[in-house]
Amino acid sequence: MVNRKETNPDGGPEAAFGARLRREREARGWKQDDLGGRIGYTGRHVSGVELCHKSPTRKFSIAVDVAMGYTDSVDSFEREWRKIKHGVLLQGFPEYVSLEGRAAEIRLFEVGVIPGLLQTREYAEALARGAVERGVISTEQAEERVSLLMERQGALLRTVPPVLMAVLDESCVRRPIGGLGVMKAQLLHLIDFAEQPNTMLQIAPFSMGERRPFNRAVNLLTLPDRSVVSYVESETQGHLDRELSSVLPLVRAYHQSQAESLSQTDSVDVIHQLRKGTP
Hints:
CATH class of the largest domain: Alpha Beta
Largest sheet: 6 strands, mixed
Number of strands: 6
Structural class: alpha/beta
CATH topology of the largest domain: Endonuclease, Chain A
Radius of gyration: 22 Å
């Protein structure tokens, strides 16, 4: 082969993905254009992934699995993509997501935006588009971000769903995201959420002032064995904590935030009033 560039499977997770992709493709006697035609991409794109010039995406990986017969198998390329994706997520978040999917109780506190588990797809897409416009992520990464969020939400639809409590700073419901139509639907979604038998929704009003115990997102999980895990995230760092001495102060502060916040009835009334202000 003329001008064949070698792959380097030891160059990192993406390089290993690319090297395996080439190996599997060539084992089937396919050229890059052949595989590209089967999965809806160009041969040049396939080459870019193989040589680590392009990052694999979830959509790409799923298409490769279908073409090569690896869907839902231990050899799935999507499974490898998830390992890559988790490698660049904030520390602690991949493990948090795995625990979240089997938690008996989930407690959320959020400032500024509706927490992911309570977002509509359109609201999540608006946030993702904003990140694309700011140059933080690519369009494909935005699609993957929304897909992963929908998977997280789907994991909670179990025979015995978790108890899900959310305390939202008032800024979450007052900050317009995605335009009036998207925000109206999101607020209605919160009202519907509050009506579920396994949920509780409260708004921490601006009037709490300095009494608000948290200034950033805090997640608390109670696992089936009754142990409690906390996950606290900033813009650049995430921290998963299992140590009881560290988690208990957050649990106490969460109880304080619930006591200071509006009742669920009053919180829903506030959301209804806000919806009336949207056409």
